[in-house]
Structure formats: C-alpha cells, structure tokens
Amino acid sequence: MANFGGHAIPGTFFLLYGFWLTVKHVLQHYWRTSQPKGRQVMPPFFKRMDYAEGGVKIFASFVGIMVEQFVVDGPHARLYDRENTSWVKLMNWQHSTMYLFFGISGMALIASTAVRAVPLGVDRLALSFALFIEGFLFMYHVHGRQPLDAHIHTLLLFAVFAGSAGTMLEVFIRNNLILELFRADMFILQGSWFYQIGVVLYPLTGDKWDLNQHDNMMFVTMCFAWHLALSLFLVSCTAFLVWFTTTRFSEKGRDIEIGMRIASSKTSSQKALLEESDEE
Amino acid sequence: MANFGGHAIPGTFFLLYGFWLTVKHVLQHYWRTSQPKGRQVMPPFFKRMDYAEGGVKIFASFVGIMVEQFVVDGPHARLYDRENTSWVKLMNWQHSTMYLFFGISGMALIASTAVRAVPLGVDRLALSFALFIEGFLFMYHVHGRQPLDAHIHTLLLFAVFAGSAGTMLEVFIRNNLILELFRADMFILQGSWFYQIGVVLYPLTGDKWDLNQHDNMMFVTMCFAWHLALSLFLVSCTAFLVWFTTTRFSEKGRDIEIGMRIASSKTSSQKALLEESDEE
Amino acid sequence: MANFGGHAIPGTFFLLYGFWLTVKHVLQHYWRTSQPKGRQVMPPFFKRMDYAEGGVKIFASFVGIMVEQFVVDGPHARLYDRENTSWVKLMNWQHSTMYLFFGISGMALIASTAVRAVPLGVDRLALSFALFIEGFLFMYHVHGRQPLDAHIHTLLLFAVFAGSAGTMLEVFIRNNLILELFRADMFILQGSWFYQIGVVLYPLTGDKWDLNQHDNMMFVTMCFAWHLALSLFLVSCTAFLVWFTTTRFSEKGRDIEIGMRIASSKTSSQKALLEESDEE
Amino acid sequence: MANFGGHAIPGTFFLLYGFWLTVKHVLQHYWRTSQPKGRQVMPPFFKRMDYAEGGVKIFASFVGIMVEQFVVDGPHARLYDRENTSWVKLMNWQHSTMYLFFGISGMALIASTAVRAVPLGVDRLALSFALFIEGFLFMYHVHGRQPLDAHIHTLLLFAVFAGSAGTMLEVFIRNNLILELFRADMFILQGSWFYQIGVVLYPLTGDKWDLNQHDNMMFVTMCFAWHLALSLFLVSCTAFLVWFTTTRFSEKGRDIEIGMRIASSKTSSQKALLEESDEE
C-alpha cells in the first residue's frame, strides 16, 4: 500500500460508504417522521438496503484480505518465517485484520436485520469495533516514523476514533439523525483524508514534501479542518438533495393515494390525512 | 494578532457572545416554565433572536476572514509561495479557518431555525465543531513556545474544549438551562482569558513577564481559577437580573391579560389562571 | 501546610463531610422510597439540612481563607512583592482559591434550596467545579517534586477527579442513591488519603520515607486501593446503620399513625396502608 | 506468578466467568422478552444463580489471597521487613489486593440479590471497581519493564478498563443485553490474553521471544485484535446455543402449559396465549 493508489482505493471506498450512509439514513428519517404513529414496522425496502450493505461489506472485506495476502509481494498466508526467524509482511497482515473486522460488521448487520432475536444495536457495536481496531492498529503503526508522516496519520485517528465513539453512542441512542449523519460524515472525512495522505506522502507530480519541516505540519493540521468543513458541506448537500427529492415524489404519491381513497370511500379519516400533509 | 489588540478584539467578542447567550437562554427558560403545557410553540420573538444571532455570526466571521487575509502584512489569499517554496502566513490562515467554522455554526443556526426539516440540535453540533476546531488548531499551535506562553494557551484549551463538550451534550439534552448557562459561562471565561493572555504576553505597561519563571506559571494557573469564579459570578448576576426583570414585567402583563379576560367572560378557566399565578 | 497537621485538618473535614453526605442521602432515599407517589414535596427537615450544610461550608471556607492568609508566615493578602519582583506565598494563595470554590458551592446549595427559580442541579455543578479546581490546582502543583511526593499527590487526583465527574453526572441523573453514595465515598477516600499523605511525607515517628525508592511507590499505589476498600466498607456500614435505625423508628411511627386513623375512621384506605407496610 | 501456570490459572478463571456471564444474561434476556408485561418478578432460579456466582467469587478470592500469601516464597502475611528496611513480596500483596476487590464484588452481588433495600446496580459498581483496581495496579506495575513485556501488559489494560467502563455504564442502563454481553466478552478477551501473555513471556517450547524487537510488538498488537475477534465469535456462538436451546425447551413447555389450560377452562385468554406463541 506504500504508494498513491494504495491510499486512493480505501479512500474511495470510505467516501462511497459515507455517501451511501447519508442517503440511507435520510431516507429512513423521512420515513420515520412522515409515518403516522400507528404503523411503525420498517418497510421491506429498508431491510433490503441493509442486506445489500452487509453483503457488499463482507464481499469487499474478503476481496481486500485476499489481495493483501496474495499480491506479488504479499505474505501468501505465511505468518512466520522460521528460516530468518522473522514475521512475514506484518503490514499486509495488519491490513487484513482491519478488513476482517469490517467483514464482521457486515455479518452483524445482516444478522441483526434478518434475525429478530439479535438485539438492536449489534450492527452499530460491530461497526464501532471495526473503527476502533482500525484506529488501534494505526496508532501503534505510527511510532518511529518521520514527523509529518506520523502527524498526518495521527490526524486520521481523530476521524476514526470520533466515528467509533459516535457509532458506539448509537447502540444506546437509536434513530437519531444527527448521530447517523455524524457517522456518515466521519467516513467521508476519513475517505478524503486518505487521498490527502496519498498526495502528501506519494505526490503524483514528483515534488517531494519535506517530512521534517514544521510549517508543513502546521499546514496539514489546518488542512484537516478544511477537509472537515468540506465533508460537512458534502453531507449537507446530499442530505438536502435526498430529502427534497423524496418529499417531491412522496407528495405526488400521497396525492394519488388520497385520491384513490376518496374515490373508494369518503370517510372521516380523509380529513386527518389532509391535515397531515398540510403540516409538512 | 501578535499584540494586545489582537487578543482584546476576539476576547471582547467572546465576552459579548457569552452575555448574549445568558440573556437569551434565561428568557427562553422563563418562557418554557411559565407556559401552560398546552401551547408549546416558540413565539416568533425567539426565532428572530436566533436569526439575528446567526446573521451576526456569519457577518463577523466574514469580516474576520477578510481582515486576516487583507491586512497589510496578511497573506492576501495566497497560500503557497513557489519562489521561496514556503507557506505564506500560516497563522493568518489558521485564524481564518477558525472564523470559517464559527460562520458555519451561524449558518447552521439559521437553517435549523428557518427549516423545519433540519433536525433539532444541528446548530449545537456546528457550534461544538467550531469550538473543537478552535481548540484543535490552538493545540498544535503551542508546540515549541516558551513555557509560560505555552501554558497560558493550554489553559485556554480547558475553556474551549469544556465548551465544546458541553455544547455537544446539548445535541442530546435539549432545553437544559444548566447546560445552556455552562456554554455561556465558557464563552465568558474564554473572553476574559483572552484579555489575560494579552496582558501577560503583551503588557501595556512595559514590564515584561519572565516567560520561563516557574512562579509565574503557578500564578497563571491560579489566575485561571479566579477567572472561572468571576465568570460564574457574572453569569449568575446577569441571569438573576434578566429573570427578575422578566418576572416583574410579565406579572404586570398577566394581570392585565387576566383583567381583560374577566371583563369579557367570567369563565371557570379564570380560577386556573389565578392559581397558576399564585404558584409562582 | 507543609506538616502533618496541615494534612490532617483538611483530611478530617473531608472525612466528616463524607459521613454527613452518607447520612443525608440515605435519609432522603428512605423518604423517597417510602412515600406513596402522591405526596412528593420534600419535608422542611431536608431543607434545613441543606441550609445547615451550605452554611457550614461557607463558614469553613471563610475561616480557611482567613487562616491561609493571616497565619504568621502567610501572605497577609499581599499578592505581589514589587521589591523582590516575586509572588508572595503562592501556595497559601492556591489553598485560598480552593476554599473559595468550596464556599461558592455552599452558596449554590443555599440558593438552590431557597429559591425555586434556581434550576435543580446548580448545587451539584458548583460542587463539581470545586472538586475540579482542587484537582486542577494540585495537578500543576506536583511538577518537579520528588517521585514519591508527586506520586502520592497524583493518586489523590484519582479521588478528586472521580468525585468531580460523579457529581457532574448528578446534574443530569437526580436522586440516584448510588451516585450520591459514590460522591460521599470519594470524599471519605480523599479524607483518609490526606492522612496517608501526612503520614508518608511528615512521619510522626521520625523514620523518614525514601522518596525515590521504587518499592515505596509500589506500596503506596496498593495502599490507595486499600483506602478505597476501607472507604467502601465505612460507607456501607454507615448507610446500613442509618437505614436500619430509620426503618425501625418509622415503623413504630407508622403503626401509631395507622392506629389513630383506624380509631377515627374505619375506611377502605386502611387496608392499602397495611399492605404497604407489609411490603417493606 | 512469574511462570506460565501463574498466567494460565487466572486466564482460565476469567474465561470460565465470561462464559458463565454469557449464559446467565442470555437466559435472563430470554426470560425478560418472553414474559407478558404483567408478571415482572424474577423467578427464584435467577436469584439462585446470583447467589452461586457471588459465593464462588468470594470463595475463589479467599483461596487466591491465601495462596498468594502462604505459598513457599510468599510474604506469609508479613508486609514490612524491619531488619532489611524493605517491603516483603509486594507483587504477592498486589495480587491479594486484586482478589480482595473481586471478593467485595461477590459480597455486593449477594447483598443486592438478598436485600431489597440495597439499590439496584451496587453489584455492577463493585465489579467495575474490581476491574478498575486490577487495571490501576497493573498500570503502575508495568513501568520500567522491557518493551514487549510492558506492551503486552498495556494491551491487557484495554480489555480491563473497557470492561470496567462498560460495567459502570450498567449501573445506569439496566437489562441491556448488549452491555451485558460486552462485559462477558471483555472477560473472555482478558482470559485468552492472559494465556497469550504466558505463551509470550514464558514459552513452553523453550524458544524465547526477543523482548526488544519492534516486529514482535507489531505482531502482538495485531494478535490482540485477533483475540478480540475470537472472543466475539465465542460469545456469539454461546449466546446462539443458549437461545436456541431455551427457545426449543420453553416452546415444548408452553405447549403443555397451554394444553392444560385449555383442558381445564376454555376461556378467552387462551386466544391471547396462542397469539403470543405465534409471534415468536
């Protein structure tokens, strides 16, 4: 992974996952707030979204582990080299471990969606663990590197551990849109910061950054704040777009629904429905 | 900003903002506790206060960014100097970044006041982010300075991060007067501490402080506790004054209101209203 | 304070305060659980306890400040010595500052008991601040001392900050006996640890402890755990005694009450009352 | 304890305790969710489980303390050696202290099960204290050891303090299966990590690990993540097995129960019961 591509690929995945989470949770929130209090059973559409998300996570983690193990200079599933009495390619093994935990979080998502006996929040706990393990391994990873290299990875840890803490909170505080979008935002921030790490450590243009200059560290710190601002902007825009589109479509849908009901039976419930649509 | 004025100006802003928050939240609390449970819709007066607050924040942030960029020795919106291969005036860029996040918190306040679909608490989250970014940038700012300079800025971080944590809590615990006044208090503490930093690092009288003396650090630590006591005193007095004035005025107002109601229709609800005013 | 007595006096105060809190909160808890749900207004007896506690706190803090300032070798309210350009007796000033905050917490307790408009929890917030400031000043106090001296004060911080955090939680979680007894326990632990500090740093028997020996630090760490066990034992015994005594007395009282009621009017409510007393 | 067995014995205890907790809490959860809302009194079976758990804890702690004190090279209850002016076998005293707190948590469990006046959550608070003291003593234990030895014990602290924090949360959030299984998981993780420490520091095969090699530390960090994954797997499997078995058995039981009720009285409540069993 010690090249630009090795940072761009996970960055892209995290970015996409962040956007997916934004869309999913805004849709769920719209559904929650627009339903009358009586019918609170999630429609099967949301279940299918969760199955898809879990499946993609498991698949991507599996592919990630395979690639880390069986690339040309990978460990090929060998952990210890008895001849040289040394560990084989620990970096690849560490990345495999990170993928493993994201795979576990995918399994937890599918299990908690499919099986009613699995307590609510298990999926969030598993995701929180996955982020924690990612941060935990990165943390001990960073020792003894050059200052800027260490610093830029330390900044990544802010996004990772904040995401882990926020997701842990979601185990207890369910259906809170702010927490859900915070999670999405931390994934987007993480994704865009992976790109930034790639740009700084493996610049495409050839000009190498001085990894010991104090001004570079000051800039990178500030740059992290800009990435945060950018990620907030992206999440807000996406959420607005999804909300706007959904409201438009569902208003049309509801007009039709109401129309049909009026046609079939002019009951008193019709008034309540009209009032409901006025409120929004 | 490396002079007394550069610390007095933000200090004044933070002080004024702290007092504004105290007044606003005591008024809101009075309104919340004095309303009968039926009519819980915020009167438009409070909405207008929030619009004003958000507008001032956005405007002040914009002015702040412009000043930091286009003062005589500012970076003039240039970030990197290719000739000297060095960053241009990173300090001014960092301050601009801090202002940017306070501007964002102003936008979030206006958005969450104006648009019903924006979830409650987004304004607090944005303010918490603004304080976090302020503390985050200051934290990495401080490395390698002289002991007293580093220490006095570290103490500022207590006020900043405590404010950020308290504001984050408000995302989940709404309408809690203690948390709201805690936030106001942390802004006042921050403001008065900015003045203290100015006094210590750029004394107006000419006697320079010894930035390496251990006793000076001990004094400054204690002085921070005194500022906290002072800020608690100021918030309490302001809150008392606002509460006292409001109670006086609204009692008169209610007497008139009740009088009119009695005149127009002697209903049974009158008794309830009288009992209610007795209770307070 | 640099002698055994200077540690024994605050230690005694904290111990007594811890026991007082245990008694007070067990009584309040008994009252809360034994009342039928209808009458939830605190009896005036508890109000008087809080007034007394607040008054003693303010008085003791005032005396403490006076003593620290006007003992023979105290600063006599002089802060800065212009002749020697040095601060005067900062240690005494720091202790005065700590007392000041405990005085403030006393005022907050009286204010929140007497004035209904003061929001619930202000007294806990002020006490949490007092403990925080105590720990905060001790923390920066400790730098540059000999290892065992620094370590034994660092251990004190565990009790102080744990107490502060627990008391802060009580702002939000009211009437939770466990949190209330935790607070009492931390005060008792603090008090007994003050004695331990006195014994180690200013031994009465003359044998000085080696302040650099690693084994002494190991022992002191373990000793802190023993103090915790002791404080838990003391709080449990006190709580049990208070509960046992109260139950005994109030059962007698209630039998008489019920007896009188039966005599005056044999109503159906009598049965409910009897059932209630059976349940306990 | 400086040998493999000295790590395997506590490891085995923690592993067994983790599995016991998993079984106990899944059974309790099953019971909670399957009961109709009316009858919420815990059946005596669960009380007996808690008595047994508390009794075993007290007994095991007592035996542990005795062994630590009276093994051949133990301190034999002597704390200070006046002749050599040194502490006697502080390591054994520290382990005794840890056992003492687990014994206290056993007493708290029995007290809170047997006596109704003991507030709910006291058992969790005491267990949280026991874990905290374990971590607290280990923390100061580790100073000045060789890098790998220090690191492998530091990793243990993650499991210990996470367990302590989660158990503390349970004082406030009762009957949350996720928190309960988290606690069980942290005990299993701790237990298996004790084995790992034994394997690394006192290898059975003779090949000593190089305690200064950086790669060994990287491997051990990753290995901790694998132990976490393993513990999650073990808890999930155990929980699934217990749930599956219980559902099977209780379905049979309920069918019989329903059958008898139908036979004795064909009431309308029968329909409700059938619906209830359909739902699961």
UniProtKB/TrEMBL annotation, chains A, B, C, D:
Bilayer topology: Multi-pass membrane protein
Name used for this protein in its record: Transmembrane protein 45B
Coiled coil location: none
InterPro entries named among the record's database cross-references: DUF716, TMEM45
Intracellular or extracellular location(s): Membrane
Species whose genome carries this gene: Fundulus heteroclitus (Killifish)
TM region(s), chain numbering: 12-31, 51-72, 98-118, 125-143, 155-173, 185-204, 224-244
Highest taxon listed in the record's lineage: Eukaryota
GO cellular component, one term: membrane
Main subcellular localisation: membrane
